[in-house]
Design goal:
406 residues, alpha/beta, FAD/NAD(P)-binding domain, Enolase-like, domain 1, 3 domains, five-stranded parallel beta sheet, binds flavin-adenine dinucleotide
Length: 406
């Protein structure tokens, strides 16, 4: 492998470092990250980290590991430009790093609202450790002073945060402009279940709302006009999704369309440049272009990219899976929800737990599990195996899913 610069220090970058170090190539890697922390686990930021005042950011690997592997890290020093002709990346500090191969693992950035100017003191997003540290401090102050948290957007991160804030004892309101929670990532049945779950936790959830205006006073958002009513705002967190961080790629002329375009081996329109993780829009086996935002996708694409960098072809064909923890509810998905499918419900081992399967022509394509981790694991195996399954057997909890593998 030749000298490789990895831009970004998230899940994809960490997994790529691990895969290349395992192949004995750590000494050829330079890792450049805009953040000051070494690569760390992002999922806890909306869950346990917010609820436990003493929980630390969970690094993937300690600083000593990077040193042992010979990986040079450049933290808190983002790449500001890429010269593809000269094969050099320029960091904000002025450092210029030459590369033979470059990997973009720049993730996403939180979407903001045009109606709200940046820098308002009581409006935030939750994307990284800096956001999470500040939010945790603020939530604890709010608990002490009995303030209310408003979340704009009923997506995964917003709902996880809503549940965490409720568990801290805060009053929480969620405003969602779409007619249901979680957009099109989950089925209508699961969206309804999630809505009921949050309401049962005491969160005031409004769906299908119209935000008609925002009242600003100085550097603060005082209220929002929602469906003709004035809603006072103590603290607002925007959970309205993320946009792929493709600015560097666009600026250096790589092909970009809702993500950096890559082939199944993670190569961009320039074969010397790869892109992985949330920022990459890849070619799936059926020829569709997909961009996924999940830890699984980041990890598996990193493995595929490592193979490419090491001169092997290992196209990314992994089954997508995802999890979300919203208070006591653990939602797990395997496969992608097909637009049209036949659905079948299987009760889980514990009260209130279940899995909703989605099939087409007898083949299992997707499974959505609520507090049913073992069924989720088996569903992954069944989908990967591509076997035809009998709906009667699938929905009968007395028949072990394992037996359907054949
Ligand atoms: C609060 C939260 C909770 C989540 N929970 C879950 C969950 O429960 N389950 C799940 O599957 N997924 C979850 N996700 C999504 C998951 O974390 C992402 O899919 C994953 O982090 C993607 O990895 P990545 O490496 O592509 O991007 P990121 O992890 O976002 O890393 C991108 C990195 O690139 C850096 N960067 C960007 N531009 C530059 C530049 N110019 N120079 C240098 N560095 C740059 C960024 O600072 C960042 O560190 C969650 C995400 C968040 C924010």
């Amino acid at each position: 492998m030749e000298n490789t610069v990895i831009v970004g220090g998230g899940h994809a970058a960490a997994a790529l470092c691990a895969a290349l170090a395992e192949a004995g190539q750590g000494g050829r890697i330079q890792l450049v990250c805009a953040e000051h922390d070494l690569p760390y686990q992002r999922p806890p930021l909306s869950k346990s980290f917010l609820k436990k005042a003493d929980e630390a950011i969970a690094s993937h690997k300690a600083a000593a590991w990077y040193a042992e592997q010979g990986i040079q890290t450049h933290l808190g020093d983002p790449v500001v430009s890429i010269d593809r002709e000269a094969r050099i990346v320029l960091l904000r500090s002025g450092t210029a790093l030459p590369y033979h191969q470059l990997v973009l693992a720049t993730g996403t950035r939180a979407r903001t609202l045009d109606a709200l100017p940046p820098g308002l003191h009581n409006v935030r997003v939750l994307r990284d450790a800096t956001d999470a540290r500040a939010l945790r401090t603020r939530l604890n102050e709010m608990v002490a002073s009995g303030r209310r948290l408003t979340l704009l957007g009923g997506g995964f991160i917003g709902l996880e945060l809503a549940a965490s804030a409720r568990q801290l004892g805060l009053e929480v309101g969620v405003l969602e402009v779409a007619p249901r929670l979680l957009g099109r990532s989950v089925s209508a049945l699961i969206a309804g279940h999630v809505l009921a779950h949050h309401r049962s936790m005491g969160t005031e959830v409004q769906i299908g709302v119209h935000i008609e205006g925002c009242e600003l006073v100085g550097e603060r958002l005082r209220s929002m006009q929602v469906d003709g009513n004035r809603v006072e705002v103590d603290e607002l967190v925007l959970g309205i999704g993320a946009v792929p961080e493709t600015r560097l790629a666009s600026a250096c002329g790589l092909a970009v369309d809702n993500g950096v375009l890559v082939d199944a081996c993670m190569r961009t329109s320039d074969p010397a440049v790869l892109a992985i993780g949330d920022c990459a829009a890849f070619l799936a086996a059926d020829g569709a272009r997909l961009r996924l935002e999940s830890v699984q996708n980041a990890n598996d694409q990193a493995r595929s990219a490592a193979a490419t960098l090491l001169g092997r072809e290992e196209p990314y064909r992994a089954l997508p899976w995802f999890w979300s923890e919203q208070g006591p509810m653990r939602l797990q998905m395997a496969g992608l929800l097909p637009p049209i499918s036949e659905s079948a419900l299987r009760s889980g081992a514990n009260a209130g737990s279940f899995t909703l399967f989605h099939l087409r022509d007898g083949r299992l394509l997707c499974a959505e599990s609520v507090n049913a981790p073992l069924d989720h694991m088996m569903a992954r195996k069944l989908i990967e195996a591509g076997v035809s399954v009998d709906i009667e057997a699938l929905t009968n909890p007395a028949i072990p899913l394992k037996s359907l593998l054949g």
